[in-house]
Design goal:
This protein is mostly helical. The protein is built from 30 helices and eight strands. The strands form two sheets. The chain has a six-stranded mixed beta sheet with strand order 1-8-7-4-5-6, covered by helices on one side. A hairpin with a 5-residue loop joins strand 2 and strand 3. Helix 5 packs antiparallel against helix 6 and helix 20 runs antiparallel to helix 21. The N terminus and C terminus are likely disordered.
Length: 672
Amino acid sequence: MRHLTLAGVCLAIVAGCGDARSHAALMADAATDKDAIEFERAMARYDSARATSPDDAEAHRQYATLAGYFDLRAEAVLAWERALELEPDDSAAWEAYVTDLRWAGVYGTDRRYAEKILQILPEALRRAPDRPSIYEEAQDAAEDLAQFDAYGAILAEVQAMRPDDPILRHAVEALRVARAEQEEGDRGRLVRDSIGAALDALAAEVEGDPDAAAPVLYRLAAGYDSHVPQRKNDADRWLERLEAAPDRGVLADDLRYWDLTIDFEMAVRGYADSTVDVSRLAAEGLKSRRLGRRSAWVSRNLTAVRERALASIAGDAPSDRAVRGAVTVAAEPPHAKLDPEAAEPLFDAAMDVVRWQSRAQFSAIRSLLYFGIEPRAVLDAAIAIEDDLRANRPGYLYPGLQGDERERSRRNSINSARILQARALTQLGEIEAAGDLFGQVATESRGSRSLGEYGRHLLRTGRPEEALDAFVEAMAFGGSWLEPLAEEAAAAADLLPETVEERLAARRPVVGEELERRELGQRIEREAPQFAIADQDGVEWRLSDLEGKIVVLKFWATWCGPCLQEFPHFVELLKTYEDDEEVVFLTVATAGSPREEVARQIEEGGFTFPVLFDEQGLALDYEILAYPTTFYLDRAGFIQFKRAGFEESGYEEGVARRIDALRTEADAPASP
């Protein structure tokens, strides 16, 4: 993502930003923009204010807050550091600083940010003892680095000075649980039981005390919630008391936020009592103090409003998933328009998502298209999103993407915005313009979604045989869900049903070759970070010892469902290559995977492949953002391919294709 150190950018965004206007005027205008949800413009003004008055801590704070909102975490870190130089006792700034350090490291997969957290942690805990999230971010950073001992030493040092601090006590207990779960036997359960007993004793002590201090109430609410999860009623009871405490400060904020989030998600998925009012939950969530959390609740509010809109449709209402993006053949909207009392709140909620520049914007606009609400406004919004993406404006793409991956995501998002424009044009009756745009996207970005949307347009406009070809091509690109639409197109063209399979059989090999060329052309060409790590049998593996071999290196986690789904296929690969001395398969269990759980899963699956335990934060060095992630290293030790996630279809063939590409290149004679 583009970084905004906004000296030049502010001139492009804020008219007159570079003139001789006063610092006070810049700050006032920035505050007005922020209140109006013009966050990028506000950020530019605050940056200009920082330049005019470098000693104004508030300007640095506000800039850092907005930079963090847009996931410009490295920029935010620098601004927080300046703010804390000026006002070192600002506990809220310490909390935000540690949070942005954490996520700058995660999104940038840079261990230096996690290491910085441990370096500044003693000072942060001295200056901001009332901020529990500092402990949480620090423990996560220590886990990433496999440095629980260093983190524990810091906690012990602080606890020696503050032995009766309940917030610190909760953090010490959290570390005890994390450490125990990485050990053998039932240590995790035993530690949780002992913590539960300590909480019970504390609860009995303060049960009848109406003046119990908020930190004590926090330890009870957070302790029962995280360490004794089966005691949710106890956690809720103490959280209610904490929320009513006059000295609660921010102690209840995180607990309440996650409670609301879980309650909301359970309700919309049908796992909660039907009397749960999701609108009330959304309204409460929108009161969150942090911009990122309020943004999340803006999106959840849209879900709540959309649920009400679906419920207002007579008969068999479609699912929320269908509204958010399913491809249908029916003309849009696919049913009678909503009544104004349902349509107007849905429009307002969707436009709020767009205003907040949330990455849920595409889902919001699809909702309006599905119901046929204000297509002109939808068209304008989709055009604006495309313009912003082309200009590399912040807030649209997942911040962890780097290099070529980020550019591919940006192009895909631009094409998604253009498809939404074409759908809006269709609803406005501009059929020819819509068809041209659908066709352009399908030609320029050949894939299942773009071809499927074009086929749908062709079918709606009376060109069934062309639609059939588009649907078949989309299916060859992996769009198996389009088969019913292809069959409908065949029937409309008076063709036999088997025509679909016949044409698909002819196109699959051609498209397969195209996909293979695309994949094998997307090289990383990065030297693999070295490691020396022991496996489950104590055998040490050094990457340097594997020079001259092709290495397939898989990172996984015990809590990762797709990882476990992949393992049986991985075992079959090992059988295929067991006599191939040129290829080595290794797996690395992430630092957050307890050894006991790794052993259990390996034993239950009957797996015999080497499992290396990441005890040096190797996932950070390899830029792991999701599990499973597999790397393919050539014989010189360079990463050439990276695959995140697991997809069963074509799995073995894909692995073989990448290995064969590396083998063929190694065997090819050098150029004269």
